Amino acid sequence: MANDYSFSFNTAMMNLPTVMGSMPDSGQANIPSNYPIQIVFDRSMDRGSVEGLLKTSPSFSYDTKWFEANMVLEIVPTEPMVANTTYIISIDAGALSSFDLPMTSDFEFHFTTRR
Question: Who contacts 58 (Cβ-Cβ below 8 Å, separation ≥6)?
Answer without folding.
Answer: 82, 85, 87
